[in-house]
Amino acid sequence: MRYLKAYAMANPRKSIAVIAFAAAMVSCYPVFFGMSFVSPIVALLYPLPPFVPGGPVTEFIGENFRMSDTGATSWSIVPNTVVQWAALARDWEFPFWTRYVGCGTPLFAQGQSMIGDILHWIPVAAGGSAVAWDIKFVLSKAVFATGVGLLAFRFTSSLPAGLLLAVSGCFLGFFAYRFNHPAFFVLTYAPWIVLQWARLGDTLAVAHPRIRSCAIHAGLLAAVTWLQLNAGATKEGVITACFMHSLGILAFVDPVRAKWGWIRSFAIAIGFSLGAVTVAAPHWLLFLDALAKSYTNYDDPVVLTYPLWSFAGFFDNFFFQQIDGTLHGPSTNIFVLLCMVSGLLGLRRIKSIHFRGAWILFAVAFCVAFGLLPNSVLASIPFIKNIHHVGNTFSVPMMVLALILAGFGIQEYAAAPRKRKKLIAWLSLSVLFGLSVFYMVVNPALSTGVLFALALAMLIFGLVALHGLAAQGGRPLKYALTVVACCFILLHVRHGMHLMTGTGLDLYVVNPGPRADLSGESRAVAYLKQRLAAQGEPARVIGERGVMFPGSSSLLGLESLVSVEPLRNREYEDLLALVDYPYIDWKWLRLIRNDQIAARAPSLDLLNVRYMLAGHGTPMPQDMRLVHSSDLDVWERPTAWPRAFFVNRVFEVRAPTDILAVLYKFPHMPFAAVENRSIPPWMPAQTDTAYRVVPARRYSLTNNSTRFSVDATGPGLIVLGETYYPGDFVAKVNGAAMEYVRVNHAFKGIWVGKTGTYDVEFTYRPARLSQAMIVCLCGAVMLLVLCMVSSWTRSAREPSAGRGGGQRSSTG
How do residues 328-343 score in pLDDT, each as one tens digit? Predict the structure, then answer.
């Protein structure tokens, strides 16, 4: 024990990192026993367990995720990892696009593809395997906890604070609320932003800083900003980055203000922050461009905050769960609350600006998250008004700030005399008791539920009492320390992952499901892929009801209709509504039953739906053919339109409903409906020539591109049934760049003026990609210039040198 203590004192940063990684593994110990963060626990290929081929048939049933959003990862994030791997390994293309959902949609520009996060390359390199995902989740938690511990040590110079918070950071209620949601990863790099700001400030605080050292730390600041924005969910990531940069600027200014003064220090800090954000332009500029062209669930302003009485839930999700059995939002743990109260007592005594700045930022986030700012005010602020879950989003930076403030609280308690320690203990317990009472008064029917919290408070009180009795050292001290350690463990253990016990305790902890091979392929899917390859032309596949649930088609490498992504093509969503593709819920979920297919057959033809997967014995319309039956039935629709084709005549439309009229007037006949303004003057409005449709051939598909050949019988339009995004595609005909137009409201096409064979290529290349790269380069140059200027700038307090090198004398 003495050796470990001596090693920790000699190597504090290594010790914090080791403890953080160990705590992360302990908090996720079920993954070492065959459980997984990405266990198939929702409908995927199959609507019921085992959900995927070869998946575990054991009941995940006992687990209650308490309304944690487990679908986002299962239907979007994990499948997109498979798409990213295929794009890189098979096509040698960066995965800007995915063709497997929504008839094609941007992938990188979604803002949460995570391909820009270095940890995300672990599951990408492994083809989206569950083991690789589990490694990423554990490492993410470890990196976050290490950052929290190092930041606490950096601000307080207290090794116990760093070690305790490195452990506590792995046992937050947040990790149950965001069990495997992409928001889980938003915490990963948050403390590192502040830490890197502090290191940059230390580098420039010396009398003669080296440009190289400054450039390295400025580059690391830009890198960690990039990682934060790319790590997970966009809303939480951006808001957390704003708060962390705000605190980081204060951490930067603190060491350099004596050299440059307040104004110059803040000016240089703002310059570095702008440079770091500018370097991340390939992420946010492409996202903003895609956002402007897309439909989202958040287009209409909505502001949802938490009631003030639920603030107790921020420190233990037990309070949230008592309301209706669900986890309503992010939470930390009671240990963080106790330490924060201790830090609050040091507010007048601790003079550091980052300590006071952390309290101010925490108060700002608290006022927003818990409704102290009127919703009418929040609804008038751009971006915030479209967040919807404002309380949830602003609680995320609150957690990081709470952990930082807890570090100061540990320092305050450790440095306090014995009498003050008692005051801190009593006040901490009083605050916990007060929050519990406030909660009970507002929710009297739930008061029995908080007995758990009150008993926990008594346990903590006993801990403090024993700690006070141990002032003389010796054996009583050893016993007290043992009790302290046990109580610390009890405060945290519930917030880790656990194996299923079959007891009531399972209702209050996270029990992950069994790991499965997500790459297992069903016999029906294997047959379908072989059939598509033999036919030599692409086609879309849908499932009946919950079969091949939306999003899971990306796991299987099959193109389908419904997109789970947050940014979806606006015109395509309009088209789905126009043709009445059955809407279910969640503002995106559409599923079709077997008895709804016949009435929507022309619509399915238009959408290039050639195959349908269904459960055994599911009856289908008479014009469909059962071509295979194994684990699923495979049905073929021979009337489906080709993916691409040439037509020698177009239908002029003035409103989307005109497309519907044409569709049901000429069922099963491919056509092109175009707005009048997009029809060239040389295209004859009417012709005596018979209406001709020529299907395309010789298809070649990659992740970002579609190539094919088609024979034109004269002037007309080449149509491709993939979504239209203005300016985001490079269209080529026989190697020459061409303009493309919107066809059939959501798809695209190219005009040709004469008879001939045309080789057509559409390649997705974001319209602002070049601009984003230029802005990124400008940001890098800006950081380099700032490093040089900062290194050459003299201290504001340094006397000016005279002409002869002597100092100017004072003339009192």
Answer: 899 999 999 999 999 9
Q: Give 810's DSSP letter.
A: P
Half-sphere exposure of 627 (CA within 13 A, CB side): 21
Give the model's confidence band at 455: pLDDT under 50 very low, under 70 low, under 90 confident, else very high.
Answer: low
Largest Cα separation within the chain, whole Å, is: 107
Q: How many domains does the chain have?
A: 1
Q: How far is CA 612 from CA 543, 569, 609, 626, 774, in A?
A: 5, 23, 8, 10, 45
What pLDDT is attached to residue 477? Answer: 61
E-state strands within 595-696: 609-614, 625-629, 633-636, 644-647, 651-653, 673-675, 693-695
Domain assignment present for residue 660? The answer is yes
The answer to whether residue 707 sits within a structural domain is yes
Q: Give the Cα separation of 361 and 368 in Å (integer).
A: 11
The whole-number pLDDT of residue 5 equals 80
Q: Measuring CA to CA, which residue among 73, 122, 92 is closest to residue 554?
A: 73
State whether the Cα torsion 430-436-440-442 is positive or negative: positive
**Structural domain containing residue 758:** 644-764
In terms of Cβ atoms closer than 10 Å to its own Cβ (0-12, 13-18, 19+), residue 30 is buried
Band of the pLDDT at 713, cuts 50, 70, 90?
Answer: very high
- In a domain? residue 685: yes
pTM for this structure? Answer: 0.93
718 found inside a domain = yes
